User: Fold these one by one.
Assistant:
Number 1:
Amino acid sequence: MGKKSQITYWCHEIIRAQAARGGIYIDATMGKGNDTLLLCELAGDAGKVIAFDIQKMALEETEKLLKKENKIEQMGERVRLIQASHQYMDQYVNPESVDVICFNFGYLPGGDHRISTKADTSIEAIGKGLELLKSGGMMSLCIYSGGDTGFEEKERILAYLKTLHPREYTVICNYYFNRENHPPIPVFIFKS
Ligand code: SAM
């Protein structure tokens, strides 16, 4: 299948189209660093990127990718890779200061499928992330289900997003309408 069938392609397209440049960006689930790399591009010459993952392997993979793309050299201390769980992201940035936060739930492709995001901590991290977003900022979430991931996390995240006040947040939830076997769900949240 082509790139337009991929959830990450669409998330990146929407983020590129909507996000401010040169601001503060958070990758809440670093993995292999593809979202971190996009956020570094948006940060440009002046912005900052903070990326989180609980696995050392994710930090290593991401550092490798950023080095290959010269981002470590270009950004220096403006990009930070942090081995910590995303529900602590509020310890690293001020409230209402962040332009974009990316979540890509689930497990590290090619890694241990048991080390995966979990409903409780994911929801806590989304809530904290929303507080950190500035007015006009956005959050992108790729939600997976089925297989090793199960359904609890997807169902609980969607139920939580339904409770967000429509005056404060616009929540756009998308579907692969004609795909079988529990396709991923891309969600975009825009803060008023
Ligand atoms: N964005 C990544 C990329 O571009 O390759 C893919 C992310 S992968 C689907 C999910 C990642 O979330 C895994 O690397 C996993 O270790 C990480 N993760 C799981 N629980 C986490 C937590 N509580 N805080 C931060 N990262 C977590």
Number 2:
Amino acid sequence: MKTLIINIKELLQVRNTNITKVSGKDMAHLPILNNAWLLIIDDLIADFGTMDTCPAQDDCEVIDASGRTVLPTWCDSHTHLVYAGNRVQEFVDRINGLSYEEIFNRGGGILNSAKKLNETSEDDIYEQSKQRLEEVMKQGTGAVEIKSGYGLTVEGELKMLRVIQRLKKEYPVAIKATFLGAHAFPAEYKENHSGYIDLIVNEMLPKIAEEKLADYIDAFLETGYFSIDETKRIMEAGKKYGLQAKIHVNQFTAISGIEACVKYDALSVDHLEVVTDEDIKALQNSNTMPVALPTCSFFISIPYTPARKMIEAGLPLALATDFNPGTTPSGNMNLVVATACIKMKMTPEEAINAATINGAYAMGISDTHGSITKGKKANIIITQPVTSYYQLPYAFGSNLIETVFIEGKAI
Ligand code: NIG
Ligand code: FE
């Protein structure tokens, strides 16, 4: 099947050479073709160019994108979109003055979601989760990483990962699964941390590996959750099964966790609301992608990742949603991009690079996703008529997306 999109006002993120990420000053550059065409054959981007070189239109479906921007779909490299129920009561409790930490210490937070998850059937979790996946696809997400971490029991974690596999099978979006058994210590292991880590290492991981349920491994490296040494044990164990680390770190406190993650060759370090100069040094010249989650900062009123400082230090940066029931009940990447521009002072070019090519890198798929490149997946967004792509973050909260193509098909 052939689809030819013509008269594209601006075709964004055109990369002829297959770069895997952009860093520092290069993030300010977003390659654009004005007055362009794009040819899709089956599930792939076959070719593109400016309208003066437009190919014959006889054997393909033609879409006229006059006045519209075309860009690659968002790559959301950090979500927890498989979960049961919601946490609306905690949302209201926080409005009334309780902190995220206080709620957790009362047995709420992650443990509240874990209780619900373990009480819900796999089919029911699948039905709830697929609605969220369908919603984010319509919002322009064409690739998504999904974590476990609300099971915290062998059965619960396996159940979540099986739901992720089912979503992978049923939907055309690229999905990467991350095992996050080390999300929080269950109440019965509060005083026996090594016992819970033994359970992760000796029982959960072998089963997950046997069923090939995960691509990556994660831990919540944070004061009151998993220490550096505990996280190292998790990363080490993951490595034995070929699971590279993507770690939650520096959300509330900076305890030199980033350095440890870089040493273990983590693919990404995520959150980074609190970042020290030492953290930045550790990331310089590494292969680890820092990932910011600005709508998490927005929702629970914590600092925003210091993007300017990091980009000026030459680092790359990716943007993701963190879609989860506690700290970010939204999977809308358009809002993430807008929030990054408005609150983190990222330019639209930097934010779009961070949400496409760098997001793809942070989930290990930048050879197939994240840019308009011949041979990559035909995952594209066609906007409504706009003045320019600046309007995407400017009109925050508006839906400016007209059509989303995933693997060559309009959804
Ligand atoms: O990324 N910080 C750790 N995990 C999630 C929140 C989990 C929850 O509250 O359910 C996050 O923000
Ligand atoms: Fe998260």
Number 3:
Amino acid sequence: MPDLVFSHSHEEEVTYFADLILPLPIPNLFTYRVPRTMVEVIKIGARVIVPFGKKDGRVLTAIVARLHNTPPPRYQARYILELLDDYPLITSYQLELFRWMADYYMCCIGEVMNVALPSGLKISSQSKVQYNPDFDYPELLSPEEVTLLEELKKHPALTYEELGRLVGELNVPTVIKALVGKRAVIVFEEVREKYVPKMIRKVRLGAAYEDREALLDLIRKLDKSPKQQEVVMRYLRHVPVLLNSALNSRGLDKTVLNQDDEISQSSMTTLIKNGIFETFEVIQPRFSDNLAPTVEIRLTEAQQQASEAIMAKFNTQNIVLLHGITGSGKTEVYINLIQQALESGSQVLYLLPEIALTTQIVVRLQRVFGDKMGIYHSKFSDNERVEVWKGVVSGQYQFVVGVRSAVFLPFDNLGLIIVDEEHETSYKQHDPAPRYHARDVAMMLAQWQQAKVLLGSATPSLESYYQAQQGRYGLVELFQRFGDATLPQITLVDTKVEKKQKTMKNEFTSALLTALGDNLERKEQSILFQNRRGYSPYMQCEDCDWTAECPNCDVSLTYHMKVGELRCHYCGYKEEVPRTCPVCGSTKVKTIGFGTEKLEDQLQILFPEARILRMDLDTTRAKNAYQQIIEEFEQGNVDMLVGTQMITKGLDFDKVSLVGIFDADRIIHFPEFRATERAFQMLTQVSGRAGRRGGRQGRVLIQTSNPQQLILQKIITNDYRGLYDEEIRERQDFNYPPFSRLIKLTVRHPEQHISKQAAERLAAELTDTLGSSRVLGPEQPLVERIRNQFLYDILIKIERGPVNMKAVKEFIRDRINDVLTDKGLRQVSIVVDVDCL
Ligand code: ADP
Ligand code: ZN
Ligand code: ZN
């Protein structure tokens, strides 16, 4: 056998194969054949189009991960259909990153690719139908077929959808199938790239008139048609071709010349017809604001010291944690470091949590970096994301500020990565896979590209602070607010006492009401924080105790008054508010508890003259709603802002001198091992919005039924270190992170007993080898059922140290496969969350 092959191959060229990443949740790469015409040009990291699956015509966009000449042992390789890039769209660093992520986060590399690439770089394929010009047996056709065919004759080609719209009630797929059988139509796949660059139409003088004499001659001749002459003169005012003929080639935006009047439009048409003007199109970059840098930052002495300390640490350490209190001007320190990195010629990535990015920070950065800075945000349109991607490749953007998915951009020369607000949980992707943590991914990226990482926070995660204590990260502190501002004074208000004295009005203590009134009088702004949206979280019948519950999930429905709906915050289910109890018919249906909507409502009644805005998920759904609220507040058109944790993140307002916090107890007593850390972070961050400018000290009032709680004492004294010492001991005692690594497996199935059975079996198999101290559960989570799926959690805790995590993960993966290949359990789904939060 080998001889046979050999005797062929010295005449024929070697057959090339490519291992491809397909955008599917499948564990393996797929091998395809490279057509001879592509062999010379195909590169690792380029996109290709390949057929996939049994059905003809289904195509996928894939990425070339490996080129070689070994045929796949178990299947006949199919040919690559098309090569989309003649350069690697995905850098080798990115490929390495994809592989690492799939391994580390226990998912498929195709899933990583799906999340990594903006969909504009993926390809969509759509079936199109076309009239077959060779068809000439019309007598064979049914009336429906004739109708369809007549439509098709009028158009070059149509999609099924377009056809459906044209022919109304006809069953398009069936009729087409019949027509295909009769060879009356041709069906083909049209592949198109979804990224559409924005084009602008421009005009310029015909090449003949770039010559000075010819142009002057033309102007003289146009004396007879003054309107046309006016248009030419208008052009010359914008593009002085007589002074510099080379300017003509760049032309002028057509809309500038038309100036909306019809006269110039018709003159224009004539000028174009006569060859005096010619039109052409160019791609318009989407971010051509022509922003020039306008400010220079002068660091304060404390900031300068911090900046120098960070640079010094970078000499010996790759990761530095900047612990800087709220309002200390961490952003200014970052800017300084970014400038240094850019000057040295390397790229910079600045990560921010989603919501913080929409705001003021971007404006501040733009004033410094102008249009050298790319912005990568998930609210951006896909085309905009593609443009940032391409800008990084082309070198236009050496510096990108972005949300967690910006770690996927094609950097190849990073010098510095900043992770601002590094404690933020929104850096962890929840759904879908890969369930990655952008901070941790950033560190891997940095390691490969020899970049430095700066983590920054006023309330560092225990994990990061612990690493700093162990000497694995450098630690730099900045404990001074900018200007003459000081940290706000935090007061605990006892709601139990006020309730007894009957001094509360609705949810407001008299202490908070007085403070709010004072602030209103002084025309200073107040922020009110309640981490729950909607009007109230429960609706209940006083007579029979019925409560409104979601039919799909195991939770109560939240009452939203303005829209008159009950809504599920887990699955989005909504229904109209019942006027009477659906069980007993009683009219005494009451609401229990309060959310931001109710607070806003009550506040307006208490302070009728106050201008109040609310900021939560419900008021910020529209594209620019968030910015609008911030602008209104910034311009002083608002006295009080009520909001959820959205208002805790990075906002920087001058005139906020009071922050009121509701329901602190609920935040503190959340049943989760990180609750104390979270509460400290959340309450400290929201407090930090007060008193950010000098002048009078800001004030924070926290309403609680138990002011003695240790954590509240730590918050009012801003005692991060005390909190850390306390917490880290507990983490150690119970072997929680940072002393262990967590992997959470969630088993889901619409039937509870199946879900339970699968979870119990999985847990048993895991426990057999890992031991019962490392495997907790299965346990039903707080919300047992979401979207009609019953959930069971298994928590795997692996101590840090000499454990081969790779082997552990492989073992877990095998056990999951065992369960999933069991006949009775095949429909179960199991979600793996590595380093779950
Ligand atoms: P942090 O992120 O540490 O909470 P910021 O970076 O938002 O603090 O800074 C707080 C405020 O102080 C911002 O409005 C910022 O513009 C201002 N600020 C801080 N440092 C300086 C500086 N060196 N020069 C001018 N303004 C500064
Ligand atoms: Zn009832
Ligand atoms: Zn629901």
Number 4:
Amino acid sequence: MAIRHLMSPLDFSVEETERLLDLANDIELHRDTYSNICEGKRIATLFYEPSTRTRLSFEAAMMNLGGKVLGFHSEDSSSATKGESVADTIRIVSCYADIAAMRHPKEGAPLVASLKSSIPVINAGDGGHQHPTQTLTDMLTIRSLKGRLDNLTIGLCGDLKFGRTVHSLIESLSRYPGISFVLISPEELRVPSYVRNGMKSKKIPFSEVEKLDAETMADLDILYMTRVQKERFFNEADYVRMKDFYILDREKMALAPKDMCVLHPLPRVNEISVEVDDDPRACYFKQAQYGVYARMALILTLMGIEVSK
Ligand code: NCD
């Protein structure tokens, strides 16, 4: 059987994505059924960039399936500091683990690794490019809370230029009918042209605005907030100027639709005030929980493991 990797959310067809999300929902309901299914299997988490949720949720996902975990959590603690390439590292890791998740500051690094790998490689975030497992998490959250992935108006707010979760989510949701986007960002942090052109070529309705106000939020089903990606800025002054451009607080939430869900891939910095956390429309902590189910379903799918019921 050919090895399957996950580099972009579009690597799975819409049908495959739906199947994976169904599996994630089943895992959520029947945790015990899956608790030993990966016994004897190992995941390697190869993180060249900091992470809390993504790395720990991969590790929790494999442990919940009865498997084991090995890996490193920073470039400094790996042989990358001695000059080893990701291609060599993955060849070695292929001898120690059955599946690997890699996060890297360089766009395309997990893809390079996958070409030399004899185990499935998952892109756990490559620079400002893509973050497909966050997208599976986001889609699972939206589908579970709203009951559908079509006919939705989605507002994406903040750093749409460097925010890789935004790029992956737009590409994925663009495959569903009746989707439209409201892109809310400062001029300097608008989506990259390849993302904009992708929406145009698929004739997806979208608007680009700067203000997060009542008019912008009026028709939103989802408001997806993001932090300004400090680590991808070339100069500190630009970051400082833009970091508090948006702050979603109680006053702003009073202007938003009553059934709008607020999502955020996290970590948040200042862009959502903590006073919003108690609002029933604040769904970002639930979203982090869905991330574990999505990654459990992904591990099983890529490893071709099926539960016998
Ligand atoms: C995101 C990422 O790493 O791109 N975080 C995550 O994986 N949950 C978002 C971010 O860092 O802002």
